[in-house]
Amino acid sequence: MIDPALDPQAQLVAIASAFDLPAPVASVAPLGNGNVNATYLVALAGGEMRRYVLQKLNTQVFAQPQPLMANLAEVSAHVTRRLAEQPQAPDAGRGWEMPQVMAAASGEQTWVETDEGFWRLISFIEDTVSHDTLNAVDQARELGYGLGRFHALISDLPPELLADTLPGFHVTPTYLQAYDDVLSGSDRASEPAVVDCLEFVAARRSFVTVLEDARAAGVLVPRPIHGDPKVNNVLLDRSSGRAIALVDLDTVKPGLVHYDLGDCLRSGCNRLGEETDDLDQVDFDLDFCEAILTGYGAAARQVLSDADIDHLYDAIRLISFELGLRFLSDYLAGDVYFRVTHPQQNLQRARVQFRLTEDIEAKEDAIRAIIERLR
C-alpha cells in the first residue's frame, strides 16, 4: 500500500521501490512524450548503474492489463531464447537487446497495483538514442532494419500464444464504425476544419476494408506483430547508430505485418512528424521509404510472401489514413484516448495524417516501384 499522504515524487519512488530491484531507488523522473501511458526513468542509489522504465498503464486504453503483461512475458522469453541460440544477426554481425520485465518485490507478479493505477517496471536499454522524426537516410535504413529484426525474431512464435489485448486495433473498418458512431453525437462536427476532414474521409470509405478482405480470403495470414513501430520506438546504439532494440511492446498481438510496415513507413517518411503545424510541407519522403524497406529486407525479407508485398502499398496508404481517422474520432469524442496539450491538437494531428495520405496517393507509382525491389 502506497501512503496517499506522500507528495507525488515520493509516491513515484515508493511505487518503483515495490519492485524487485538490486538497490534502493534514488530518483524517478519523467521520460519521453508518449500519447498513452505515463512513463518515468528510475535511477538507483549506491553507484548502481542500471536504470529502469516505470510506466503507469492507461487502463482506459488497456482495460485488461494482465493479459498484456502475459504477452510481454511470452515475447520476451521467446526472443531471449532466439538470441541465446544466435546472439548476432548473420547478415550484419550485430547484436539485439530485449527489454526485460521486472518482478514485483512480492514475487507474485510483474506489476504493482495502487490507488493511483496499474504499474510495471522494465529494464532501460543504456547508451541508446531514439528520434521522433528521421533526419538522415542512414537512420531510415536502421528504422527498417530494427522492425525487420524484430519480425524475424518473432516469426516462429505461434500467434495463438498471444492474447489480443486490443481487439480491433489496426482493423480499419472498426475505426470507421467508431468514427461513424461518435460523429452522430459530436458537437464539434460543424467546425470548418472538421468539415474538411469529414469530406476527406467520405471520399475514401471504399478502400478501408482492403487488408481485412485479404485476410478473410486467406491471402494475408495473421502472425505476431509489434503493433506500434513508429520512429521513436526503435532504439539506436549511441556510438554506431545501429538499431539494437524495439521498445513499447504494449501492442504486441496477433495481426498482419502490414499494420507494422504501414505504420513504420507512415511514421518514418513524414519528416515533419505527427505534431507539425505546417500542413503545406507535409510529404511522404521517397528516399526514406526506399531506405526503410532496404533495411527491413536485409533483416526480414524471408518473412514476406509475394502476397504480402502485393498489399504493401495499400498498407502504407491505409495506415496513414487510419491514424488520421483515429485522431479525428478522438477530437470529435472530446479527446478521451490520445493525450493532448491544447484543445485543437487531435484535430491538427488528423489533418497532418490526411495530408500525408494525399501525398502517398500522389506518389503511388513511385512507391510501388520501390516496393517491387523487395522481390
Descriptive notes:
This protein has 375 residues and is an alpha+beta fold. It has two domains: 8-124, Phosphorylase Kinase, domain 1 (2-Layer Sandwich), CATH 3.30.200; 129-372, Aminoglycoside phosphotransferase (APH), C-terminal lobe (Aminoglycoside 3'-phosphotransferase, Chain: A, domain 2, Alpha-Beta Complex), CATH 3.90.1200. It has helices at residues 8-17, 65-85, 137-154, 172-183, 192-202, 210-216, 257-269, 286-300, 306-310, 312-333, 345-362, 364-372, and strands spanning 25-30, 38-44, 51-57, 112-114, 117-123, 128-129, 223-225, 234-237, 243-246, 253-255. The strands form three sheets. The protein has a five-stranded antiparallel beta sheet with strand order 1-2-3-5-4, covered by helices on one side. It has a three-stranded antiparallel beta sheet with strand order 6-8-9. The longest helix has 22 residues, at 312-333. It starts with 7 loop residues before the first helix and ends with a helix. The mean pLDDT is 92.
